[in-house]
């Protein structure tokens, strides 16, 4: 399969506001967020849990209507869900009553593709993900990592302009996660599709992304935007490079402040007020 | 190689073990492609070889043997109770012996009357049950999926739901132009509510993320109903069908006994009127066997229609 640099797949989130009404109370999930994904770029959105990063992705997917601002795909306003944006969910979301291949073919079937086209496309992508041997299995017969690979392949099958991934590896154990990250970066390297990737795992974001947005605690705003200087293609060895470590450390610092804010604490020069001052950089991992 | 010199420094730098883990796996990523799926032929956790007795209990033979013992003891009790005319509050004085019933089986099968009765009952069940399935599933999907349909239909349905199908017998006879239709209607009513309510529940229980996933893959409302809502609700629908089939038989037999001509329920009631004790028992046994066959047919259908269910518990 040739490397084809995507000419489309530009996502522009401009001054996005999202408010919810819940139990009579109005709360703000996202405030004035600006996020851009250039064609063929891998962009991560990272922040403490509950910061509204999934909400932002849901607005791009078309599940939510913005309360203010614009969400554009290649300059067109997004009005609802559509197969031009492939979505990978954290909870796999495979149809249990369909075989692996039928799951992958579903989007093409909705487009009215012929059975032979569907099969050819599905098998190509399943081959790329190392899943061809499991095409006739049902999702319940697969491990979590395999299910999520099927989820990615299914989202890619309709040749979307952009792939939206909502903490796709969040439900996996750490070993599988690392392998999945390598598989994903290899697939991305071949397909060069635009990706908007939601995660709370800093190493994951640094390893996969070209650019990272760091979000604040609720209401979610964009706190920082960072370029990842690591070369492509990414390899597992890079995670032990000084650049990688420095990047992770920088983001940890940014998120730490937000996590503490999200927990209702205050940060002073002497450390975290109300918590032990021994909570240093190593402790942040537990806070996040 | 170049990374090697940097390694110790970084390891000191980042004591948490999380980034160190991938290094163990990085050299051979391909071995992880089938991870968690191909089980290694690991020996069972240390345990003594199963004794002959244990192996017997785990085998199929034990199941069959217990089944035979279970049924044989019922027959034995029946035989002894009727042979010695057991009379201890419950009275076996007029109850036929198994042998008498067996004779009756041979006798009734020599004339077409008995078979005709069975055929008529089965036809009533099929018609009523089929109508209940079509209407119950159809209405159930609409009610489960659309809030307006639920708000509109459920209050009216809740009024009728607590009324047992048998209570409809007199009204049904007045409603329908002929007796046959009114019996099918009673059967229908019996099956309808379990099927409807289970379908509604099944539709509501579908994980909303599946609906979202289908939407992002380009599914419109019609495709969503056909490819996601209906198959997603199938396990609950089949629960409704199994329960509905049971209630349909109860309703049918009662309707046949009260208002009927023909049918196995009528046969059984008529035997009572004619003081033909063996035929009463035969009618009961026949009803039991027919009910068993019908629920077996539904289980078989469920297996054929939902092949994925066979795997849903076998996940590694």
Report low-confidence residues of chain B grouped into runs of 5 or more: 1-39
Greatest interface by residues involved: A-B, 58 and 50 residues
Give the N-to-C terminal Cα separation of chain A. Answer: 39 Å
Strand content of chain B: under 5%
Please give a structural write-up.
The complex is a heterodimer of chains A (288) and B (316). Chain A is α/β, with parallel strands linked by helices. Chain A is 35% helix and 24% strand. Chain A contains eight helices and twelve strands. Chain A has a six-stranded mixed beta sheet, with helices on both faces. In chain A, strands 2-1-4-5 form a four-stranded antiparallel beta sheet, with helices on one face. Chain A has a two-stranded antiparallel ribbon with strand order 11-12. In chain A, helix 2 packs across helix 3 (115-128) and helix 6 crosses helix 7. Mean pLDDT of chain A is 86; it is low at 1-6 and 274-288. The model of chain B is unreliable at 1-39 (pLDDT under 50). Chain B has helices at 2-13, 21-25, 52-58, 60-83, 98-109, 112-145, 147-160, 169-175, 179-204, 208-216, 221-259, 264-273, 277-305; strands at residues 87-88, 90-91. With 316 residues, chain B is mainly α. In chain B, strands 1-2 form a two-stranded antiparallel sheet. Chain B has 13 helices and two strands. Chain B is flat, with a radius of gyration of 30 Å. The chains are: A alpha/beta (288), B mainly alpha (316). At the A-B interface, strand 6, helix 2, helix 4, helix 5 and helix 7 of A face helix 1, helix 2, helix 10 and helix 11 of B.
Describe what is shown at a glance.
The complex is a heterodimer of chains A (288) and B (316). Chain A has 288 residues and is of the alpha/beta class.
Topology summary:
The complex is a heterodimer of chains A (288) and B (316).
Chain A: E1 11-22, E2 25-37, E3 42-46, H1 53-61, E4 68-73, E5 76-77, E6 85-88, H2 100-110, H3 115-128, H4 144-157, E7 162-166, H5 174-191, E8 194-199, H6 202-208, E9 211-215, E10 222-227, H7 242-262, E11 266-268, E12 271-273, H8 281-287
Parallel strand pairs in A: 3-8, 3-9, 6-7, 7-8
Antiparallel strand pairs in A: 1-2, 1-4, 4-5, 9-10, 11-12
Chain B: H1 2-13, H2 21-25, H3 52-58, H4 60-83, E1 87-88, E2 90-91, H5 98-109, H6 112-145, H7 147-160, H8 169-175, H9 179-204, H10 208-216, H11 221-259, H12 264-273, H13 277-305
Antiparallel strand pairs in B: 1-2
Helix pairs in contact in B: 5-13, 6-7, 6-9, 6-11, 6-12, 8-9, 9-11, 11-12, 11-13, 12-13
């Amino acid at each position: 399969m040739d490397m084809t640099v995507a000419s489309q797949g530009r996502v522009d989130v401009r001054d996005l506001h999202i408010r919810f009404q819940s139990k009579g109370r109005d709360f703000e999930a996202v405030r004035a967020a600006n996020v851009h994904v250039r064609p063929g770029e891998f962009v991560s959105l990272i922040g403490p849990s509950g910061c509204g990063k999934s909400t932002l992705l849901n607005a791009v997917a078309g599940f939510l209507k913005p309360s203010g601002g614009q969400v554009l795909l290649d300059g067109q306003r997004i009005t609802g869900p559509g197969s031009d944006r492939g979505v990978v969910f954290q909870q796999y979301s495979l149809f249990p009553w369909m075989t692996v291949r039928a799951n992958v073919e579903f989007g093409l079937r909705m487009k009215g593709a012929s059975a032979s086209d569907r099969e050819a496309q599905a098998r190509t992508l399943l081959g790329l993900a190392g899943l061809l041997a499991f095409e006739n299995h049902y999702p319940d017969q697969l491990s979590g990592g395999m299910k999520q690979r099927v989820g990615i392949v299914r989202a890619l099958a309709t040749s979307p302009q952009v792939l939206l991934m909502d903490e796709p590896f969040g439900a996996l154990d750490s070993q599988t996660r690392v392998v999945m990250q390598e598989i994903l970066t290899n697939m991305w390297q071949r397909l060069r599709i635009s990706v908007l990737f939601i995660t709370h795992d800093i190493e994951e974001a640094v390893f996969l992304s070209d650019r990272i947005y760091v979000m604040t605690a609720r209401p979610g705003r964009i706190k920082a935007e960072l370029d990842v200087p690591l070369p492509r293609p990414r390899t597992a060895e890079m995670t032990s490079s000084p650049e990688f470590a420095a990047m992770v450390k920088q983001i940890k610092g940014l998120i730490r402040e937000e996590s503490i804010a999200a927990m209702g604490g205050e940060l002073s020069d002497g450390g975290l007020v109300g918590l032990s001052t021994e909570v240093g950089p190593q402790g942040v991992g537990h806070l996040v | 190689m170049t990374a090697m010199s940097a390694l110790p420094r970084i390891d000191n730098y980042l004591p948490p073990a999380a980034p160190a883990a991938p290094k163990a796996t990085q050299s051979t990523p391909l071995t992880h492609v089938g991870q968690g799926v191909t089980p290694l032929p690991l020996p069972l956790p240390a345990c003594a070889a199963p004794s002959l007795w244990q192996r017997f209990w785990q085998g199929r033979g034990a199941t069959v043997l217990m089944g035979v013992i279970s049924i044989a003891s019922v027959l034995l009790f029946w035989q002894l109770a009727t042979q010695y005319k057991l009379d201890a509050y419950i009275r076996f004085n007029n109850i036929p012996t198994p042998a008498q019933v067996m004779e009756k089986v041979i006798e009734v099968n020599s004339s077409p009357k008995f078979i005709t009765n069975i055929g008529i009952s089965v036809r009533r069940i099929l018609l009523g049950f089929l109508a209940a399935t079509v209407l119950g599933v159809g209405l159930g999907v609409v009610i489960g999926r659309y809030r307006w349909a639920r708000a509109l239909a459920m209050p009216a349905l809740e009024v009728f739901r607590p009324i047992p199908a048998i209570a409809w017998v007199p009204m049904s006879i007045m409603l329908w132009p002929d007796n046959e239709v009114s019996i099918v209607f009673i059967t229908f009513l019996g099956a309808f509510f379990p099927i409807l309510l289970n379908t509604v529940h099944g539709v509501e229980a579908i994980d909303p993320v599946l609906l979202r996933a289908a939407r992002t893959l380009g599914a419109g409302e019609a495709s969503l109903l056909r490819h996601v809502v209906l198959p997603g609700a199938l396990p609950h629908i089949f629960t409704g069908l199994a329960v509905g089939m049971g209630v349909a038989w109860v309703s049918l037999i009662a309707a046949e006994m009260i208002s009927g001509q023909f049918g196995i329920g009528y046969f059984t009631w008529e035997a009572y009127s004619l003081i033909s004790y063996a035929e009463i028992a035969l009618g009961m046994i026949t009803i039991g066997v027919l009910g068993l066959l019908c629920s077996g047919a539904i289980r078989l259908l469920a297996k054929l229609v939902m092949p994925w269910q066979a795997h849903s518990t076998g996940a590694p």
